[in-house]
Amino acid sequence: MADESPVASPGGQAQQAPFGTSPVTGPTPNAGFEAAGVQRLGIVIKMMTDILPLVGATSELGQALMKNISALAKFVPPGAVTPAAEKQNIEQMAFRNAQNTQMMQQMKPQQAGGMPGQAAAPPAMSGQRAA
Prior knowledge:
mainly alpha
């Protein structure tokens, strides 16, 4: 009969799973993150619903929006998005946008080849001759 050890190493000894892991159970999702995700999905669905009248329900884009709204809406229970939650998400998006804008402004001098705090030299004009 064949040996049914978990995994045989080259030395012939069986290797065991690291301490604290079990092949029987998997990782459990964080319920708080999942709830936040459902809330944000509800806001996205609301935004898509607001876009629908602008593009028209009969347009190709409108039909795609309707298809996706109906497919995603089943994951968001009624009342998942409260006005307070919507306001909080908008504030978070504005804060992240301000952070990203600040980071982009800090990176511009580096992308232009200069050091931070130095003005980059203007690019040479391609159609002019030097005097």
